[in-house]
Write a sequence for this structure.
């Protein structure tokens, strides 16, 4: 496992973003783990978060893209901090763009988008916190494709939960590829999280013990991608 991945897993625990317990997800599934990217709130946390996203994007997609698109609302700060980090780490200027939930009908920046204007020929990477079912892409992809003749290169999320998507057969990221034709990748997968944390000390404690590992295994028996 690349060093930035194990560092990112510890960073999620340290920032109280990845939690373990009993959670009911938006999809109705009862899960022993939950990730809330909204818990990254300080300047230092956001700076590091942008750097991890930038490293993962560079790893998966290289430099051949122009725009980072973060769907409203959680994707907006992700696109901004990653654009800053990409400039600092790789010396490449990429633009950021996000959609508005409500169209703005006044001022010089009226319309459906924040940030850069999408142009014909732009190569776009979508950026999100976590994709459980791929539902958000149903709303976002048509907006992006409708704005200009762009190519969506791929999607980067922070955690791949590695469970079946809305169709109930393949993972949400695989469903996105089947439906829209672009790759989905993650900074880390849940398998890597378990590998990194199971019976190992992190922040002075064992985060995933045998009992929690058994709960996670049972969850994947039911919802995992086999």
């Amino acid at each position: 496992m690349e060093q930035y991945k194990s560092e990112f897993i510890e960073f999620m625990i340290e920032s109280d973003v990845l939690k373990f317990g009993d959670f009911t997800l938006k999809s109705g599934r009862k899960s022993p783990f939950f990730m809330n990217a909204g818990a990254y709130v300080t300047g230092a946390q956001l700076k590091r978060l942008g750097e991890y996203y930038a490293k993962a994007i560079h790893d998966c997609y290289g430099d051949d893209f122009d725009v980072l698109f973060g769907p409203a609302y959680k994707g907006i700060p992700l696109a901004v901090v990653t654009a800053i980090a990409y400039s600092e780490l790789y010396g490449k200027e990429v633009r950021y763009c996000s959609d508005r939930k409500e169209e703005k009908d006044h001022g010089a920046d009226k319309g459906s988008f924040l940030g850069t204007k999408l142009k014909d020929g732009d190569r776009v990477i979508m950026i999100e916190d976590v994709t459980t079912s791929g539902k958000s892409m149903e709303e976002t992809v048509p907006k992006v494709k409708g704005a200009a003749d762009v190519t969506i290169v791929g999607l980067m999320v922070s955690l791949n939960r590695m469970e079946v998507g809305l169709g109930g057969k393949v993972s949400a990221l695989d469903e996105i590829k089947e439906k829209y034709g672009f790759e989905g990748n993650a900074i880390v997968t849940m398998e890597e999280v378990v590998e990194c944390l199971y019976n190992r000390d992190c922040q002075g404690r064992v985060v995933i013990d045998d009992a929690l590992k058994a709960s996670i295994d049972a969850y994947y028996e039911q919802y995992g991608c086999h």
